[in-house]
């Protein structure tokens, strides 16, 4: 029989509890969340904290909001005010930038503060990566034509290959948003897109469970904005109210919760999961950690 020392067990436990997976579905409205059947998502978030009244940042469009999720700040700080933003061409200067001109992201923070951390970014909307400095991301994968199947498979392989390291995996799909633009939010096609996403998430989670990689992982379910008719970008509640959920070993099991929450808060919660204190985060970050979500 092999006995492990307390120090080794502590090391294994610490690393296991520093695995974070972000599941991002673009344009997943609170109305859609509350109406459409998604049993796999329901089972996942039932183990943690769920908000269906989280506020996107303004404007309620894609790149400003995903940037806010991943930088702990709003457009007034990070300067990403539209989907056409690039590090070379933009109108509003960020209040804080690295040597390459990018606002500090959670990927940068983890790479600088967490030894041996591994990071990955999987996406299928080309512009999404534009506001991130890729030098802080170990694996970047883009899948064409709104497809996401190979990215889900790659994400699983990345997590498995780095099971003994702290890791952050960002796994995103735009197909839900494009269904809304093409056919309308809450159209049969939009509903089918959400249901397809739920099925893919279920397969992904089952693979993690089978490989013993699920139990000690923290998961986020996040989105950027809702939608109205065939668009978004305005200030209606259909656009400005979205689901946000987190689950994992350090998170309370409260289910649906009434919390004051913003897309700006995601990176601060991630940083706390990795054990970082407020003094280790960029001073330019303006998000908060919602009250009562940690054990």
Description:
With 295 residues, the chain is of the alpha/beta class. The model is unreliable at 1-16 (pLDDT under 50). The protein contains ten helices and eight strands. It is 34% helix and 15% strand. It has an eight-stranded mixed beta sheet. Helix 7 runs parallel beside helix 9 and helix 8 packs antiparallel against helix 9 (188-210).
Task: Please name the defining characteristics of this protein.
disordered N terminus; single chain; 295 residues; alpha/beta; 8 strands; 34% helix; globular; 10 helices; 8-stranded mixed sheet
- Helical amount: 25-40%
Unreliable stretches (pLDDT < 50, length at least 5) are: 1-16
- Strand arrangement within the widest β-sheet reads 4-3-5-1-6-7-2-8
Q: Count of DSSP E strands?
A: 8
Distance between the termini: 34 Å
**Element order, helices and strands?**
HEHHEHHHEEHEHHEEEH
Mean pLDDT: 94
Category from helices, strands and their pairing: alpha/beta
Main sheet, how many strands, which sense, barrel? Answer: 8 strands, mixed
Total of helices: 10
Give the overall shape. globular
Radius of gyration: 18 Å
């Amino acid at each position: 029989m092999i006995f492990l020392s307390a120090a080794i067990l502590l090391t294994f436990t610490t690393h296991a509890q520093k695995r974070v997976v972000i599941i991002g579905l673009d344009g997943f409205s609170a109305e859609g969340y509350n109406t459409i059947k998604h049993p796999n998502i329901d089972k996942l978030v039932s183990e943690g904290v769920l908000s269906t009244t989280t506020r996107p940042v303004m404007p309620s469009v894609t790149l400003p909001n995903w940037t806010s999720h991943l930088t702990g700040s709003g457009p007034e700080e990070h300067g990403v005010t539209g989907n056409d933003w690039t590090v070379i061409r933009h109108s509003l200067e960020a209040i804080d930038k690295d040597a390459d001109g990018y606002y500090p992201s959670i990927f940068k923070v983890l790479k600088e503060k967490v030894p041996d951390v591994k990071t990955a970014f999987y996406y299928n909307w080309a512009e999404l990566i534009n506001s991130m400095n890729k030098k802080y991301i170990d694996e970047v994968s883009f899948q064409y034509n709104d497809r996401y199947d190979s990215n889900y498979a790659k994400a699983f392989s990345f997590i498995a290959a780095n099971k003994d390291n702290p890791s952050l995996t960002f796994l995103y799909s735009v197909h839900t948003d494009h269904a809304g633009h093409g056919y309308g939010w809450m159209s049969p096609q939009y509903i089918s897109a959400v249901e397809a996403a739920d099925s893919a998430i279920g397969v992904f989670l089952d693979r993690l469970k089978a490989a013993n990689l699920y139990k000690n992982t923290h998961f986020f379910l996040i989105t950027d904005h809702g939608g109205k008719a065939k668009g978004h970008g305005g200030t209606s509640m259909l656009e400005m109210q979205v689901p946000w959920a987190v689950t994992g070993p350090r998170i309370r099991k409260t289910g649906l919760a009434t919390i004051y929450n913003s897309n700006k808060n995601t990176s601060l919660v991630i940083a706390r999961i990795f054990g970082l204190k407020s003094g280790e985060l960029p001073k330019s970050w303006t998000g908060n950690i919602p009250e009562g979500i940690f054990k």
